[in-house]
Amino acid sequence: MDEEMDRVKKRVDKRLEQHANPKHSEVPFNDAMEHYGKIEGYPTKNLSKVNLQGLPLPIRILGYFFIGTMSVGMITVFLLSLFK
């Protein structure tokens, strides 16, 4: 029981030290965000710096196609509802 408490206390102290660091935005604030960043590739450091233009060309073309198709479909539905 004491070993468990010591481990928890060390982990909490480590997180508090990391949070006190001026560069604490680079450090994940919990284990789940750390998991997302390391295993799943979720960008946790700074979401405003995510570069969507860095995606491969076929994925970008597919995305543009879907967005364009939805836009044209919404405009068509709107125009057809006006003339009905």
In brief:
The protein is mainly alpha-helical and 84 residues long. The protein is built from 3 helices and no strands.
Feature tags:
elongated; 3 helices; 65% helix; 84 residues; 2 domains; mainly alpha
Please describe the topology of this protein.
Blueprint: H1 2-20, H2 31-40, H3 57-82
Mean pLDDT: 78
E-strand count? 0
Shape: elongated
Number of domains: 2
Q: Give the low-pLDDT segments.
A: none
Number of alpha- plus pi-helical segments? 3
- The helix fraction, in percent, is 55-70%
Distance between the termini: 73 Å
Structural commentary:
This protein is mostly helical. The protein has 2 domains: 1-50, no CATH class; 51-84. It is built from 3 helices and no strands. It has helices at 2-20, 31-40, 57-82. The longest helix is centred in the last third of the chain and has 26 residues, at 57-82. The protein is elongated and about 75 Å long. The termini are far apart. The mean pLDDT is 78.
